[in-house]
Amino acid sequence: MFEKLIDNSMAKSPWIFHINAGSCNGCDIELVSVLTPRYDAERLGFRLTGTPRQADIVVVSGPITLQTRDRLVRTLAQVPEPRVVVSLGSCPRSGNVFKGSYAIDGPLEKYTHVDVSVGGCTPKPEAIIAALAKATEILKEKRKEMHK
Amino acid sequence: MLPYLKKAVTNLFKKPSTEAFPAGDPPKAAEGYRGRIHYDPTKCMNCGMCLRVCAPQCMHRDIEKLENGDQKVTFTFDMTSCTFCAMCADFCSSHAITMTDDYMIVGTKLEDFLVTGTMIKKAPPKPKFTPEQIAEMKAKAEAAKKAKAEAAQNG
């Protein structure tokens, strides 16, 4: 009975969880600047949450280093379905300049599905907002499919 | 107290400092911004300098040999691998690679991030004479010269 109401309200406010998988902090700062008054993604309902169990959208930045690999897998497993994974910057998709390093075990596709990717090193906040908007649409579709 | 009040009242009638982006067009990037690579295959001469200087090895070159000796060269730039250092653009002596100010590199598939271009590198024109023919012609010319010199000596 309340399913539809919950779905509608959840679609309007997707919560973001950010995983740093060995990023250089460039992308992390840009993601935080998306939430500042200048770009203000919170007016669109996005909110940075501190726990993966409440997240709808997971944003991963950084090439997957050996140190973060197990933690990344464990954290991703804690995010409830339906979840949308957004890869931030060039690193998670390919390893960027760290490609071929002994300390890297990427790309991100090895561990999870990647729905939306943002290119750039680092991406501009506007590009991140556009990616998050796309992720929201995908999330809506996934939720619809789950209730079928 | 009064200056604060003045500021508060003026701020009431000001435009919000938040960018309206998802509603309108994305704002233009700053001058000299290094965004998505633009590749012009008509200017490229396939020297391969960009491949050498690319730190993340984001580009790929396919060379296909055609029947008439020409080469079909395809360059592929992967924007999810690029670090946007513009070294390839700096080193490109024919300015085939340039950095645009397009920063909206967002997509769901790999194809959204690829920049490709194909050019045909012409084979060098075939020489008019073969080396054997040239040697023969040289020998002939030398013989004629010798005969002429001999004729001059005798005469």
For this entry, give a set of tags:
heterodimer; A: 148 residues; alpha/beta; Rossmann fold; five-stranded parallel β-sheet; 14% strand; B: 155 residues; alpha+beta; Alpha-Beta Plaits; three-stranded antiparallel β-sheet; two-stranded antiparallel ribbon; 4 helices; elongated
Return the structural class of chain A.
alpha/beta
Strand content of chain B: 15-25%
- Strand content range of chain A: 5-15%
CATH topology of the largest domain in chain B: Alpha-Beta Plaits
Task: Label the CATH architecture of the largest domain in chain B.
Answer: 2-Layer Sandwich
- CATH class of chain A reads Alpha Beta
> What's the shape of chain A?
globular
- Helical content of chain B (DSSP H or I, runs of 4+): 25-40%
How are the SSEs placed, and which strands pair?
The complex is a heterodimer of chains A (148) and B (155).
Chain A: H1 3-12, E1 15-20, H2 26-34, E2 47-48, E3 57-61, H3 66-78, E4 84-88, H4 91-94, E5 116-118, H5 125-146
Parallel strand pairs in A: 1-2, 1-3, 3-4, 4-5
Chain B: H1 2-12, E1 37-39, H2 49-53, E2 59-65, E3 71-78, H3 87-91, E4 97-99, E5 106-107, E6 114-121, H4 131-154
Antiparallel strand pairs in B: 1-4, 2-3, 3-6
Explain the overall architecture.
The complex is a heterodimer of chains A (148) and B (155). By secondary structure, chain A is an alpha/beta fold. Chain A has a single domain (2-143), classed as Rossmann fold (3-Layer(aba) Sandwich). Helices cover 39% and strands 14% of the residues of chain A. Chain A has 5 helices and 5 strands, in the order H-E-H-E-E-H-E-H-E-H. A 5-stranded parallel sheet of chain A has the order 2-1-3-4-5, with helices on both faces. Chain B is α+β, with helices and mostly antiparallel strands and 155 residues long. Chain B has helices at residues 2-12, 49-53, 87-91, 131-154; strands at 37-39, 59-65, 71-78, 97-99, 106-107, 114-121. Chain B folds into 2 domains: 30-124, Alpha-Beta Plaits (2-Layer Sandwich); 126-155. Chain B has 4 helices and 6 strands, in the order αβαββαβββα. In chain B, the strands form 2 sheets. Chain B has a 3-stranded antiparallel sheet with strand order 2-3-6, with no helix packed on it. The A-B interface holds A 37-40, 43-44, 90, 93-97, 99, 115-121, 123-124, 126-127, 129-131, 133-134, 138 and B 17-19, 21-22, 26-27, 29, 35-36, 55-58, 78-84, 103-108, 113. Strand 5 of chain A pairs antiparallel with strand 5 of chain B, so a sheet runs across the interface.
